[in-house]
Design brief:
about 325 residues, 2 domains, alpha/beta, Rossmann fold, UDP-galactose 4-epimerase, domain 1, binds 2-amino-3-ketobutyric acid, 3-stranded parallel beta sheet, binds nicotinamide-adenine-dinucleotide
Length: about 325
C-alpha cells in the first residue's frame, strides 16, 4: 500500500516523536505532516492541530491532501483519571473528528492505537485473547474500547480502512511518557542510569505486558501495510513482547547497577494496574500480519541503558573486574 500524505496527530508525544522520523525515513520527509496541540519549533513541517476542533481537522486534512492518518493524540490512563472530561473529549470527540474528516477526504487508512487499558478487573489475567470480557474501569479504557468499536463501525458501515492494535506499556528513552500507568518502567530505568534509587508507584508484583519502542513502531507499520484480505480483525489486535513485574525490572537493572534499590509505595495507579492483565494472546497478530517483536526484557534494558548514556555490564566486564580485584 502506498501512502502519499501522512498526518500524524499527537506527534509530540512518546510514540509520535519516534514515529515521525521512522515514517519519514520509510516514505520521505515531504510525505509526513506531524501535528500536535503543543508546538514543536525544531521541525518546520510541524503544524499546530487540536483534534477536538473539527473545522481545524477538516482544514488540515484538505490543505495537505491527507490520505493516511496515524492518530496518536490522546490522554493516557493516569492523566485520564485526573481529568476524565478531557480524556473523553480528546479520545472520543477527537477520534470522531478524525474519522469523519478521513471519510470526507476519502482517506485510504486511519491507524488508531488502542491499549491494554481496554481490559478490566473481570478480564482473565493470563494469555488473554482479543475477544473476552473487557469492562474497563478507567475513563481511558472506556474511551479506548469505544475507539475500537467506532473503528469497526466506520469500516463496516462506510468502508473506512480503520486499523488498530492494543499496545502494552511502551518503553522508550527519547520522549518522556505522557501520564500512563506503565510509566514506572521508564522512570525506574532512568533513575538507575542516573545512579539514583527509585520509589515505584506500583507494587513489586504488579505484572504487566510491555514492549520496546522499536518493536512498537515496526508493528504499527506492519499492520498499516498488511494485506486487507488477511485481516479478520481490524482495530483490536493484542500485541506484546514480554511481561514483567517491577521487581523483575529491578533485578534486571541490578545486573548493571549493583547498588540500585527500589522502594514500593503504590498510589492511585495501582488500581489501574490491578485491572489490567499480566499477559496477552498475540496469535491473531502473528497470523494476520506477521507480528514479530525482537526485544525481550534483557535487550530492552540494555539498549535503554546505553541510549541513556549508561554502561552495561557484560559477562566479560564482570570477569575482568573480578580478575582485577
Ligand atoms: P503521549 O501522551 O505521549 O502523547 C499524546 C500526544 O497527544 C501529546 O503530545 C499531546 O500533546 C497530544 N494531544 C493531547 N491532546 C491533544 C489534542 N486535543 N489535539 C492534538 N494533540 C493532542 O501518548 P503516546 O504514548 O504517544 O500514545 C499515543 C497513542 O498510543 C495513544 O492513543 C495511546 O492511547 C496509545 N498507547 C500508548 C501506550 C504507551 O505506553 N505509550 C500504550 C498503549 C497505547
Ligand atoms: C498507560 O499506562 O496508560 C499506557 C497504556 C498501556 O495504554 N502506557
Amino acid at each position: 500500500m502506498t501512502f502519499e500524505k501522512i498526518l500524524v496527530t499527537g506527534a509530540g508525544g512518546q510514540i509520535g516523536s519516534e514515529l515521525v522520523p521512522y515514517l519519514s525515513e520509510v516514505f520521505g520527509n515531504d510525505r509526513v505532516i506531524p501535528s500536535d496541540v503543543r508546538s514543536n519549533s525544531s521541525d518546520n513541517r510541524f503544524i499546530s492541530l487540536d483534534v477536538t476542533d473539527r473545522a481545524a481537522v477538516d482544514l488540515a486534512m484538505d490543505k495537505y491532501k491527507i490520505d493516511t492518518v496515524f492518530h496518536l493524540a490522546a490522554i493516557l490512563s493516569a492523566s485520564g483519571e485526573k481529568n476524565p472530561e478531557l480524556a473523553y473529549r480528546v479520545n472520543i470527540a477527537g477520534l470522531y473528528n478524525i474519522f469523519e474528516s478521513a471519510l470526507k477526504n476519502r482517506s485510504k487508512l486511519v491507524m488508531t492505537p488502542s491499549s491494554i487499558g481496554v481490559f478490566g478487573p473481570d478480564t482473565p489475567r493470563e494469555n488473554v485473547p482479543i475477544e473476552t470480557i473487557t469492562r474497563p474501569v478507567t475513563m481511558y479504557g472506556i474511551t479506548k474500547l469505544m475507539a475500537e468499536y467506532l473503528g469497526n463501525y466506520y469500516h463496516a458501515r462506510f468502508g473506512l480502512n480503520a486499523r488498530g492494535l492494543r499496545f502494552p506499556g511502551l518503553i522508550s528513552y527519547k520522549t518522556p511518557p505522557g501520564g500512563g500507568t506503565t510509566d514506572y518502567s521508564i522512570e525506574m530505568i532512568r533513575e538507575a542510569v542516573k545512579g539514583k534509587n527509585y520509589v515505584c508507584f506500583l507494587k513489586e508484583d504488579s505484572k504487566l505486558p510491555m514492549m520496546y519502542m522499536p518493536d512498537a513502531l515496526q508493528s504499527l507499520l506492519k499492520l498499516a501495510e498488511a494485506d486487507d484480505s488477511r485481516l479478520k480483525h481490524r482495530t483490536d489486535f493484542n500485541i506484546t513482547s514480554f511481561s514483567i513485574t517491577p521487581k523483575q525490572l529491578e533485578a534486571e537493572l541490578r545486573k548493571h547497577y549493583k547498588s540500585f534499590e527500589v522502594t514500593y509505595s503504590p498510589d492511585f495507579r495501582q488500581r489501574i494496574a490491578d485491572s489490567w492483565p499480566g499477559s496477552l494472546d498475540v496469535s491473531a497478530a502473528v497470523q494476520e500480519w506477521d507480528f514479530h517483536p525482537n526485544y525481550d526484557l534483557r535487550a530492552t534494558t540494555e539498549d535503554m541503558i546505553v541510549n541513556l548514556g549508561g554502561k552495561i555490564r557484560t559477562r566479560e566486564s564482570n570477569f575482568l573486574e573480578a580478575a582485577n580485584r
